[in-house]
Amino acid sequence: MKHHSISVALTAVVLLLGTGLTSAVENETDAPQQAATKADASPNNTNSKLEAKHKNISRIKLVDINTATKRELKNLPGISDAEAAKIIAGRPFGSKAWLVSKNIIPMETYQAINGMIICKLTKKDIDKIEAQAAHKHK
Predict the structure, then answer these.
(1) Sign (positive/negative) of CA torsion 64, 66, 71, 73?
(2) Which domains, ranges and CATH numbers included, belong to the chain?
(3) Helix, strand, coil % in the chain, rounded to nearest 5
């Protein structure tokens, strides 16, 4: 009985010490990460990251699918000579999504270039689109 009580007490002490040591090791390894996280979350660091991101975005020249030259279109990833010619022939587009809905380019290509293109419409473009729609309904 004494032997059993001592054994249980020693097991409890070993478990408590093991848990304490594990916590101490975890806290020591987490401390540099927490400090780095706090430094990264500082307002100045966050602002500088956002500013850097905006500078990179402003360097990207968006390609207007309604006015871009064949050369500009071919510079987009996945756009071949034939697809650039189809884009030019299919103008004006009412939105970027028309490239897929009118079977100009495949969805995979569209997904690759979606963030690189825009679709601006002039009054003349809108009039042409409306005329084409009216002609289809006759």
Answers:
(1) positive
(2) 63-136 (1.10.150.320)
(3) 70, 5, 25
